[in-house]
Amino acid sequence: MGAWYWWMLLGMALVTYIPRMVPLTFLDGKKLPPIVSGVLSNIPYAVLGALIFPAILFVQEGNILFGVIGAATAFLIAVLGGGVMSVVLGTIAVLAVYSLFL
Amino acid sequence: MKNQFQAGLKAGTSIAIGYFPVALTFGLLAKTTGLSLMEATAMSLFVYAGAAQYISLSMLQVGVDPILIVMNTFIVNIRHFLMTASLNEKMHRAPKWVKAVYSFGITDESFSVIATQKEDKISTAFAFGVSLIAYGSWVIFTAVGHVIGANLPAFIQAAMSIALYAMFVGLLVPSMKGNRKVVMLAGIAAAIHCFFYFTQLLSTGWAILVSTLASAIIVEILYARRGKAAASLYQGKEEE
Q1: What's the complex ipTM?
Q2: Are B124 and B92 contacting, i.e. CB atoms less than 8 angstroms apart?
Q3: A27 to chain B: nearest residue by CA?
Q4: Per-residue pLDDT tens digits for A10-22
Q5: Which residue in chain A has the smallest CA separation from B101?
Q6: For B161, which DSSP code?
């Protein structure tokens, strides 16, 4: 790659950083209308739903069963009260066994 | 202060584990795309955006104009605007430059971990801890992937590809228990995202942004109406 690559990187870095930095920096201490801050406080749970589905089902291309088993395992461990780390490691372990033997 | 930072490192460990296979593969793919070790590592170091970095590789491969790659990166990452606006409501106040520094480390994953903490207000040190361990994993394993130029054994690679999603599940489920509002928020956003996925109406970055925002607004309106009708006691219980 030539010098243009580094200019591209600079552009990519800026357009990635700005949406992360502007709200945290410029909204600091600002009091927003209740409806807006209500919507914003809903974002974490809504975003988790959107990040998990449907992507979790398609982690392995062409093998939806793999994703279904992974999703089911993760939800099961989480519902049983496992912490985040046990959900992550438990799901990896189950899928490792699955893809090793099946 | 120090304890909060350590708590952040600990909470961010699951992200570091999840980033490991993704960064390793990125380093490997970057090498096959023709990036040098320095070019590949610099992208992870300065851009730090998983999906956008992967897309940029496939675009570089086919010789797309770099300006289009930058524009695409913006489109893919604009959803973080929503996340950091939400996060701002939960963070302790801090000098602008401090927030400008740790905002660099806000990804889908670090946002999810920080924003779902039970405390009403999150300390700056905690955010630094979560961000630092995740970022470290991303950058280091990008370089490692490039250097070793090989992937993990297939079955481990396959199994570890679930890690970040499993983490999201592990963050979401405890908040869902006994809280209908959280269940609705996640369920509606998931349903809308599935709709966009199967109809291919929107690309992934936009689809996540639109389905998240739509769900957050719909549920807020539903609850605002219900809140007016129902006794405040009932709502207090639901919120908890």
Answers
A1: 0.95
A2: yes
A3: B88
A4: 999 999 999 999 9
A5: A21
A6: T
